[in-house]
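Notebook entry, structure prediction.
Reason for the run: the old model in the group folder had no record of what sequence produced it. Starting over properly, with the input documented here first.
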Amino acid sequence: MVQGSMANDLVVLEGLKKYYPMTGGVFRRQVGTVKAVDGIDLAIRRGETLGLVGESGCGKSTLGRLILRLEPPTAGTVEFDGQNVLKLSARAMRPLRKRLQIIFQDPYSSLNPRQTIGRIIGEGLVIHRVGSPAERRERVRELMDLVGLRPEQINRYPHEFSGGQRQRIGVARALALNPDLIICDEPVSALDVSIQAQVLNLLMDLQDQFQLTYLFVSHDLSVVRHISDRVAVMYLGRLVELAAKQQLYSQPLHPYTQALLAAAPKPDPDSPKQREHLAGDLPSPLSPPTGCHFHPRCPRVMPICRDQIPAFKEQQPHHWVRCFLHRQDTQSE
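New structure, fully documented this time:
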C-alpha cells in the first residue's frame, strides 16, 4: 500500500529505488553500491505541498530527479496523473514534461550567464513550440511581472540580479509552461533569511493562484513547517515518518524526527529541551548499517533494530512511521 494514497493523488511512487554502482581498481570493477533511494512508497496529492526533509546525502534530491525522469530508477514505478512515466518513450514523454518542472537550489549556477533572462524564462516555450516569437516574448513579460520582476529588465543578464531576483527568474522559468507539479529542490537554502521569506510567500501565492502541486525538498525544518501541508522524513534512502505538518511537529514518533526537531534553533534558548539530540554523523550510503539504518545513532535502540528492517506502518490515522518502538509485534519488511 502506498503511504498517504488517496483518490486525488497526482504522483504515486511504488517501490522506487536508485542504486549507483561504485567501481575501483585498474579494471574499474564494481566494488560496491550506493543505495541513494531504497524502496520509496509515497503519494503526492493534487494541490498540496509535500515537504521532504532529512540530512544532506539522504537521497532527497535524487528522489525528485527520479520523479521527473531526469535519471532512470533501478526499480519501482512512478505514476503521474495515472500514467507510468517510466514506460513512456522519449517521444511520448515530451508533452508530459510541460507538466513537470523544477526549481533548482542554486540561483547562481542554474541560470546560463550567456543568455538574457528573457531567453532563460522563455526557453521552455521555444522547445515546446508554444506561440509565435511575439507571443512568447509577451508571455515572458507576464511571468516576470507575476514573480515580482520588472518586465523592462527582459534583456538583462543573470549577473545583473541579486540572489533573490535570480531565484525569481527560476520560478518564472518553471511556471512558463503552466505545470501541474513543481519539484522545489531546496529553492531558498542559498538565500538570506529575509529573502527566503519573500520567495516562500511567492511560492505559496502562486500555488493558490494556479492550483500547483509542490514537492518541497529541504533540510530546514522551519522552512518546511511554513510552507508544507504534509511532511515526509527521509533517512539514508528510506522514509521513516510521514504525517500532516501539525501532527508531525507536535507529536513526532520516530527518534530521528524527534532528534531533528530538537536540533532545530529555538526562539528561546533557555526553553527546556524535552527531546534527545542527534549524535554522530550520517553513515555512508555505500555501506549502510544493517537492520534499521538509524540504529547506530538512536538513543532508544533495541536488539531487533540491528537485525531487522521495520516496516512503514500507519500508527495513527494518516501518520506513518518506520520504527519498532511503535509496533505491537516484531514483523519486518
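Summary: Residues 1 and 41 are 8 Å apart (CA to CA).
The old model has been moved to the deprecated folder.
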